[in-house]
Amino acid sequence: MKIRAVGQIGTYLRRELVARTASLSCLLWPGQCRICRCPLEEDASVLCANCWRELSASLGHFYCRRCGRTVSPYGLLGEGCGHCAQEKIAYDGLLRVGLYQSVLRDLILRLKFHEATEFGDLLGDMLRAVFETRPWSESIDYLVPVPLHWRRRLERGFNQAFLLANQLRTFGVPICRDLVRIRYTRRQWDLNPAQRRRNVKGAFAVRRDHRFEDKIVCLVDDITTSGATLSECARVLKQAGAEKVYAIVLAFAEAVE
Question: What confidence score (pLDDT) does residue 42 get?
């Protein structure tokens, strides 16, 4: 417990230092794009015009609402696409903001690993705009952020999925944190799809006296690649009685084959 407390204090001090440094940077170098450091136009607040254009290029593609892959409108087959027709996916639908590339990728990485929580509102705006496009969003009983193992949360200081779920509370949907990660797993970045599925198998569980019986749930996360983590979470939630499990993410990244 002492080790954990010391780690939490260290995380708090690190976050304070980052916040104060960012504030000082704004005073010394006002009007800079937070991504490329180019001068901002007078009415801009966070990103320059070029970064906004690059961000926009990552959004708005046609994609499969079952697996999240980019496809043409002619590649959609009912509720899925040719890529996922034979795949077993435990969740019932997926929403994404865009592709994991360019400025969207930079925003996510800075939020996730550099504690740039000031990007939370910008990413939250995009997440909300996507969330309200689907009819099932009105029937969601709980938002469930994909949980981090306590060791990784201690290292990072926060769970970015919870921050994103909090951005969706404007729709009046409560956040439920009864889904927990019970096993510390390897990072998924350098694993192929089969390895990803094995890596997260049995990594999640629900708390005792959970509230998922007959509920419609929406998982929230920053990135999905193969869908292995979301699918394992959905499988566990359905075992716990959830009627439907949907998912929403900021970005879809191409899987390593």
Answer: 66
Burial class (CB in 10 A: 0-12, 13-18, 19+), 20: exposed
Domain range for 117 is 53-252
The residue to which tokens 């435990």 are assigned: 90
Question: Tell me, what CATH number does 227's domain have?
Answer: 3.40.50
CA atoms of 220 and 246, how far apart (whole Å):
9
Each residue's pLDDT tens digit, 180-194: 999 998 888 778 888
Element (H, E) at 76: strand 76-77
The number of folded domains in the chain is 1
**Mean pLDDT for the chain overall:** 85
Long-range contacts of 202-209 (CB under 8 A, 24+ apart): 203/149, 203/232, 204/147, 204/179, 204/180, 204/232, 204/233, 204/236, 205/179, 205/180, 205/236, 206/178, 206/179, 206/180, 206/236, 206/237, 206/240, 207/178, 207/180
Instruction: Give residue 18's pLDDT.
Output: 47
Place 117 in a pLDDT band, splitting at 50, 70 and 90: confident
pLDDT of residue 6: 42
Q: Give 32's DSSP letter.
A: B
Residue 34 lies in a domain: no
